[in-house]
Automatic annotation (TrEMBL):
The active site is at E174, H250, C371. The keyword Hydrolase applies. Pathway: Amino-acid degradation; L-arginine degradation via AST pathway; L-glutamate and succinate from L-arginine: step 2/5. It is an enzyme of class 3 (hydrolase). GO terms for molecular function: N-succinylarginine dihydrolase activity. InterPro entries: AstB_sf (IPR037031), SuccinylArg_d-Hdrlase_AstB (IPR007079). GO terms for biological process: L-arginine catabolic process to L-glutamate; L-arginine catabolic process to succinate. PANTHER family: N-SUCCINYLARGININE DIHYDROLASE (PTHR30420:SF2). This is N-succinylarginine dihydrolase. The gene is astB. SUPFAM superfamilies: Pentein (SSF55909). Catalyzes the hydrolysis of N(2)-succinylarginine into N(2)-succinylornithine, ammonia and CO(2). It holds the Pfam family AstB.
Length: 448
């Protein structure tokens, strides 16, 4: 049976702004308080989805969330009508209003961890929504994420959904941003590679000194258990704490994998040799031939990797078996990174082509091409069981761009977040979106 990797991209929400909310994420910190352009952000994301669809890849779309999250503000003690809740939060605790307005759910690589049916004990595709509990503004995403994923992958014969892990730092889980799957064919059993930043219960693992390690070993192990993965189909590796301290807040900022290939920076991991040997051995037992491409620090420094987001790229398989790398334009703007990419594609190796995308609006908050997509490997039968409303087509692209142009502002600054009209605009837009994507009622304002 045919199988595919389907990329579901997060549609940028109407409140996209630069709140400076993510300590440890260099771009989020350095662009704090700049005014944003939500319309441009959404159109840039849609252009990437359309381009991948036009190249023949399977592409889907994941809906944004209701923001401001008035229910979250109510839980923090702000009362009255919705407009009063926003007004009071703006007056008494602006940082909480900013957090409740974040459009951060666009980075759907953090929405969930997904295990394809070929890897799981019950032969279903498993999803665990990420608790994202390292950052308050992201910790409020998972209830809606679960409802949206449930509406997209509703068929229980093929899809199993798990609630987010316990909402404590010891089980900090950032979803697929720290999870990669290696396989020969997408529909065959593979090896799931979980990268963690620290251990919560075992102090033999070193932790970063400056910035938080968002993913714990114990969270990754819990996800592997929930999904029913075989021991032989899982590899754990620790991220180098020094690179976390240089702004590598997720593994997908320093490594990307696809098929049988891992593309990574020399400084990405601890115990790299042992990890590569384990990946090689386990993939060989699954019938695959593991290959790794190491980018030496002499060619690209960690700082250049963080600034350019070279590794936050999408590594895609083409029908002839070669691979294509989708990178943000910041890679082209960085002389050393661009020179490296030129040498990579002309070396006769597996990665033959690089395509550049303008995702500046998202990049300024630390979200590159890979952050914007959640990969779901599906066989033909499973793909047919996905809600067809969320699969990208030329007409859907047309409807979504028209929807963005109708509802989105082209400028948003912090003071605009206090405008109760913004909440109404967002709800009107999202109500229409659930009809376009045929999701049913998934937002708090639709179900409460
Ligand atoms: O969690 N930025 C996101 C970026 C997530 C990128 N995802 C991956 N690497 N997979 C984060 O730090 C910034 C929001 C703000 O500052 O307004 C933010 O949440």
């Amino acid at each position: 049976m045919k199988s595919y990797e389907v990329n579901f991209d997060g549609l940028v929400g109407p409140t996209h702004n630069y709140g400076g909310l993510s300590y440890g994420n260099v771009a989020s910190q350095s662009n704090s308080q700049q005014s944003s352009n939500p319309r441009e952000a959404a159109l840039q994301g849609l252009a990437k989805m359309k381009a991948l669809m036009d190249m023949g890849f399977q592409q889907g779309v994941l809906a944004p969330q209701e923001r401001p999250d008035v229910a979250a503000l109510r839980r923090l003690g702000f009362g009255g009508t919705d407009a009063q809740v926003i007004e009071r939060a703006a007056k008494e605790a602006m940082p909480l209003l900013v957090a409740s307005c974040s459009a951060s759910s666009m980075w759907v690589a953090n929405a969930a961890t997904v295990s394809p049916s070929a890897d799981t004990a019950d032969g279903r595709v498993h999803f665990t929504a990420a608790n994202l509990n390292c950052k308050y503004h992201r910790s409020i995403e998972h209830p809606t994420t679960s409802r949206v994923l449930g509406a997209m992958f509703a068929d229980q014969q093929h899809f199993a959904h798990h609630a987010a892990l316990p909402a404590v730092a010891q089980f900090g889980d950032e979803g697929a941003a720290n999870h990669t799957r290696f396989c020969r064919e997408y529909g065959e059993a593979g090896v799931e590679f979980f990268v963690f930043g620290r251990s919560a219960f075992d102090n033999r693992y070193p932790a970063p000194q400056k910035y938080p390690a968002r993913q714990t070993l114990e969270a990754s192990q819990a996800v592997a258990r929930l999904h029913g993965l075989r021991e032989d189909g899982v590899v754990y590796a620790q991220q180098n704490p020094n690179v976390i301290d240089q702004g590598v807040f997720h593994n997908d900022v320093i490594a990307v994998g696809n098929g049988e290939v891992l593309f990574y920076h020399e400084d990405a991991f601890l115990e790299t040799e042992q990890m590569l040997a384990e990946l090689q051995g386990k993939l060989a037992r699954a019938g695959g031939n593991f290959q790794s491409i190491c980018v030496p620090r002499s060619a690209v420094s960690v700082d250049d990797a963080v600034r350019s987001y070279l590794f936050n790229s999408q590594l895609l398989s083409r029908p002839d078996g070669s691979m294509l790398l989708i990178v943000p334009q910041e890679c082209q703007a960085n002389e050393r990174v661009w020179a490296y990419l030129q040498s990579l594609t002309s070396s006769g190796g597996l990665i033959r082509e690089v395509k550049v995308f303008d995702l500046k609006q998202s990049m300024q908050n630390g979200g590159g091409p890979a952050c914007l997509r959640l990969r779901v490997a599906l066989n033909e039968t499973e793909l047919a069981a996905v809600n067809p409303g969320v699969i990208m087509t030329a007409p859907l692209y047309g409807s979504l761009t028209a929807w963005v142009e109708k509802h989105y502002r082209d400028r948003l600054s912090e003071t605009d977040l206090a405008d109760p009209q913004l909440l109404l605009e967002c709800r009107t837009a999202l109500d229409e979106l659930t009809q376009i994507l045929k999701l049913g009622a998934v937002y708090p304002f639709q179900i409460n």
